[in-house]
Structure of Ester cyclase:
Amino acid sequence: MARGFGEVGELAVRSMEIMAAGEPADFEAVVHPRAVNREGVAEPMACRGLGPAAFYATALWLRRAFADLAWDVHAVVTEGDTAVVHATMSGRQVGPFVSYDPEGGVAQAFPATGKTFAITQTHWLRVADGKVIEHWANRDDLGMSMQLGWNPPTPAYLLRMHRATKQARKAEAA
C-alpha cells in the first residue's frame, strides 16, 4: 500500500511492519541477504547474523515477549538510499523479555507484567538493491521499562527478575 513515502521510505516502513506479523517469505522479500541489524548486540545470537533469517529471528524474539506489537509511523524522511522513520512502538508484555550480553549469554530477563507500553523510536534504514541492508535505531528504553513496571523495580519484581533470568540461562544452556 503506497503511503507517499517514496520507494525507499515505503520499504523502510514495510520492514518495520513485518516485525509484528511477517513470515520468513516477507523478510526474504524486504531484507537484503547481507543486511545487518546494528541493534542486534543485545539480542540472541540468531539475531546477530546477516540477512532475512537474522531479522526474522529479531521479530520472533520480540514476539515472544510482546503481543499486539505495532508501529504507528509519524514521519518518514528519505535521502538517497537512507530512510529515517519516526514511529511509536506499542505492545503488551506477555512473556519474559530477555536481553543478552556481547558474548551471547543471557544478561537479564524481565518477567511478563501484562502491561502495555507505547514509546517513540527513530529507525534508520539503508537500502541496497531494492532491499534493506542496514538498520539502527534510537529507542526510549527507559520509558518502556517504566511503563512495563520494570523500573523502578519493587522488591517482589526484583525476585521475579532473578528467577526469570535463572530460567532463561537454563533454557539457553539446554
The two ends are 43 Å apart (CA to CA). The chain has one domain: 6-173. Helices lie at 6-21, 24-30, 52-65, 141-147, 155-173.
